[in-house]
């Protein structure tokens, strides 16, 4: 089946009527359905499927072994996300295997399609959790203790879905099998529209991280408490949101976002007792922590003025990544010189790049929008991307 028809096949799974788009999070009903779909589809291609101890699914074409050519992406989404971020790379990988099988090709090297778990961090807060665990980029104890918004830990959710939480963590043996990793992904900006090209080779991923700002004040009555008597954590939180924009604007090429803010208890006639907000900050080079430190300083001042306290916790951080030079050169040559693009988005390929030669392909997105229901890719571009991926995988695995 073509990649575009594979995507069509899962187009009803995990729709989010409240937010629009899709909400597919690690080990929830939608994501489990997508895992089953992948296992079934890979089985039909004769691939040998296994789930590793971190919840990533591997579908091997032939016998697992070293110097493997591995391709894939993820099936989870952000809350209210699009249909392409993640699934496009998985569907294209399955299509590519079928294209190669149909032409009678058999890989000389071990070959696998992988689906990484919790790439968006949409449930447990740390992005690329499956690939971070595989590579040991996150401490296993820290991962086990991560909590979803309902207070369920990653260890509990993993156990419920059949994993042994004691065994999550760096998987050197499996990591040692990967010779090269390639992730095809929908483009998450306007690069390819502006360049008039259907496909690009990824070159860099900018440094990025997430921080939780937890403001504590005094919960109280909205009518009975005079303004001067309040310790309202919403006030320093709001000032922090504005500071994020102001400081990011003053920092070259910075992107900084507050996309999630949770007042507790969250009643219209209640002054909140705590407000948590999450800062997503990304600056090329090494400046992200400095930007966050400046924001934290202003947050502390604002909290102090309101008689509140703030606690800032780093939840994840990744340095700048440059994808493997030789692989990038090969991809460029084999694809006839497509453009190279940087990205501000994080990816499992960027985590793996610290351990094995890794690369990325981006497929044109005519809306230029991502992490939103408007994210899109034309069927012709999707299938063109899958054919390009097939050509590359053939060369890599010969
Ligand atoms: C993940 O897609 C991210 O870049 O936030
Ligand atoms: Mn994403
Ligand atoms: Mn993605
Ligand atoms: Mn991502």
Describe this structure in words.
The chain is an alpha/beta fold and 398 residues long. The protein folds into two domains: 3-206 and 320-397, Zn peptidases (Aminopeptidase, 3-Layer(aba) Sandwich); 208-318, Alpha-Beta Plaits. 34% of the residues lie in helices and 23% in strands. It contains 13 helices and 15 strands. The strands form three sheets. Strands 1, 2, 3, 4, 5, 6, 13, 14 and 15 form a nine-stranded mixed β-sheet that branches. Strands 9-11-7-12 form a four-stranded antiparallel β-sheet, covered by helices on one side. It has a two-stranded antiparallel sheet with strand order 8-10. Helix 1 packs across helix 3 (87-102), helix 3 crosses helix 13 and helix 9 packs antiparallel against helix 10. The longest helix is centred in the C-terminal third of the chain and has 19 residues, at 379-397. The radius of gyration is 22 Å and the shape is globular. One manganese (II) ion binds next to loops. One manganese (II) ion binds at residues 119, 345-347. One of its GO terms (molecular function) is hydrolase activity. InterPro entries: Amidase_Cbmase, Bact_exopeptidase_dim_dom, Peptidase_M20.
Topology:
Blueprint: H1 3-9, H2 29-44, E1 48-51, E2 57-61, E3 68-74, H3 87-102, E4 111-116, H4 129-135, H5 140-145, H6 154-160, H7 172-175, E5 178-186, H8 191-195, E6 199-205, E7 208-216, E8 220-221, H9 234-249, E9 255-264, E10 270-271, E11 274-282, H10 288-305, E12 309-318, E13 321-322, H11 325-334, E14 340-343, H12 348-352, E15 358-363, H13 379-397
Parallel strand pairs: 3-4, 3-5, 5-15, 6-14
Antiparallel strand pairs: 1-2, 2-4, 6-13, 6-15, 7-11, 7-12, 8-10, 9-11
The protein binds glyoxylic acid and manganese (II) ion (3 copies).
């Amino acid at each position: 089946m073509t990649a575009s028809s594979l995507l069509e096949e899962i187009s009803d799974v995990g729709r989010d009527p409240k937010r629009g788009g899709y909400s597919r999070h690690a080990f929830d009903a939608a994501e489990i359905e997508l895992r089953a779909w992948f296992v079934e589809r890979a089985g039909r291609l004769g691939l040998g499927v296994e789930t590793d101890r971190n919840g990533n699914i591997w579908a091997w074409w032939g016998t697992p072994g070293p110097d493997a050519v591995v391709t894939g992406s993820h099936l989870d989404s952000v809350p209210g996300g699009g249909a392409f971020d993640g699934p496009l790379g998985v569907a294209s990988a399955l299509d590519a295997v079928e294209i190669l099988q149909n032409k009678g090709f058999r890989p000389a090297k071990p070959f696998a399609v992988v689906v990484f778990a919790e790439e968006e961090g949409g449930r447990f807060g740390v992005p690329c959790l499956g690939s971070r665990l595989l590579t040991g980029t996150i401490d296993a104890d820290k991962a086990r203790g991560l909590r979803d918004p309902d207070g369920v830990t990653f260890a509990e959710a993993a156990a419920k879905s059949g994993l042994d939480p004691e065994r999550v963590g760096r998987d050197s043996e499996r990591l040692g099998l990967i010779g090269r990793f390639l992730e095809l992904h929908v483009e998450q900006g306007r690069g390819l529209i502006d360049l008039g090209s259907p496909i690009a080779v990824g070159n860099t991923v900018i440094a990025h991280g997430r921080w939780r700002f937890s403001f504590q004040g005094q919960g109280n009555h909205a009518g009975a408490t005079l303004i001067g008597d309040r310790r309202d954590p919403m006030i320093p939180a709001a000032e922090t949101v504005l500071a994020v924009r102001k400081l990011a604007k003053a920092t070259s090429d910075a992107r900084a976002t507050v996309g999630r803010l949770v007042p507790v208890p969250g009643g219209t006639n209640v002054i909140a007792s705590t407000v948590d907000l999450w800062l997503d900050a990304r600056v090329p080079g090494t400046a992200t922590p400095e930007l966050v430190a400046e924001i934290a300083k202003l947050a502390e001042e604002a909290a102090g003025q309101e008689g509140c306290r703030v606690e800032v916790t780093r939840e994840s951080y990744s340095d700048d990544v440059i994808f493997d030079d030789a692989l990038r050169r090969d991809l460029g040559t084999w694809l006839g010189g497509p453009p190279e693009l940087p990205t501000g988005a994080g990816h499992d390929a960027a985590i793996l790049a610290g351990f094995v030669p890794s690369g990325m392909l981006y497929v044109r997105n005519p809306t230029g929008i991502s992490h939103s229901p408007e994210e899109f890719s034309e069927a012709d571009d999707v299938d063109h991307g899958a054919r390009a991926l097939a050509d590359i995988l053939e060369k890599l695995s010969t």
